[in-house]
Amino acid sequence: MSLSVKHLLGIKDLLPSDIELILKTAAQFKEVLQRPIKKVPTLRDTSVVNLFFENSTRTRISFELAEKRLSADTINFAASSSSVSKGETLIDTAKNILSMKVDMVVMRHSASGAPHFLAQHINASIINAGDGINEHPTQALLDSFSIQERIGSLKGKKVALIGDIMHSRVALSNIYCLTKMGAEVVVCGPPTLIPKHIESLGVGVMYDIKEALKWCDVANVLRIQLERQNKPLFSSLREYAMYYGVNKQVLQSIDKEIVIMHPGPINRGVELSSDVADSKNAIILDQVENGVAVRMAALYLLAGKKDQML
Ligand code: CP
């Protein structure tokens, strides 16, 4: 079994069978990560560059650890300390790095479509680690993996994506991933943070958070992305927290146990209260843990080293 794509640019491009393969392979790598020796020689002759043009904590560390667990040679690139600050273009930067015989590129960029653009100019496989407000495919894959791990098959499960849907690449990748895997998806947030015509992607829309929480099995609470909002789209963070914040009080009022997720970083007290973020129903740190296995699976499958897995 192999993936139908050369790059992992977005979940939009994947077949359901690709998603199944990545999740199944991630489960095998998760087993590797429970061993006393967590390293396998799978990618020992592969070099991977992590090109991060935008800040990251979880994704950057998770990819680097996944590469090291697979015995790949890793090179880390941060735009702020590179020749990009002297005016070098994205393509020149990538071509110069790849001329040093680098096999794969993991890339985060603030511009939507940047990894797709790069994919047209280089031969190496590219994994999108988040591009602007477009997609964050490995986040959606680790989210789906974590849901499956907690409550079983995604088919027929009800997932509410809550908050800043408009500016969230996590939301778009989750919508593609969950609907391809047979889950039902609703988006919920203030009308100004819900894109027009989002129903065309096969999701429902709710504006009342209690209605969405009562409906769902899983609430994936998204960060308010103030850095991507050119003008204010709600009156204040206090008012947002009052109407759309997920806290103990609102969860008690729905009289039902649901799984709580958040991709991080959390604005504690805004989209999610600390008592909920740190509760037994929250799987936020499981998501982070699973990210390493999911990224090992993506790297392994794109590298095409079929015979050397474990
Ligand atoms: N979830 C996520 O992408 O977090 P980082 O921005 O810290 O990588």
CATH fold title of the largest domain: Rossmann fold
CATH architecture of the largest domain: 3-Layer(aba) Sandwich
The number of distinct structural domains comes to 2
Widest sheet: strand ordering: 7-6-5-8-9
**Biggest β-sheet description:** 5 strands, parallel
Evaluate the radius of gyration. Answer: 19 Å
Order of H and E elements: HEHEHEHEHEHEEHEHHEHH
The overall pLDDT, averaged over residues, is 95
Number of H/I helices: 11
* Distinct compounds present: phosphoric acid mono(formamide)ester
CATH superfamily of the largest domain: Aspartate/ornithine carbamoyltransferase
Beta-strand segment tally = 9
User: Helicity range of the residues?
Assistant: 25-40%
Q: How many angstroms separate the termini?
A: 16 Å
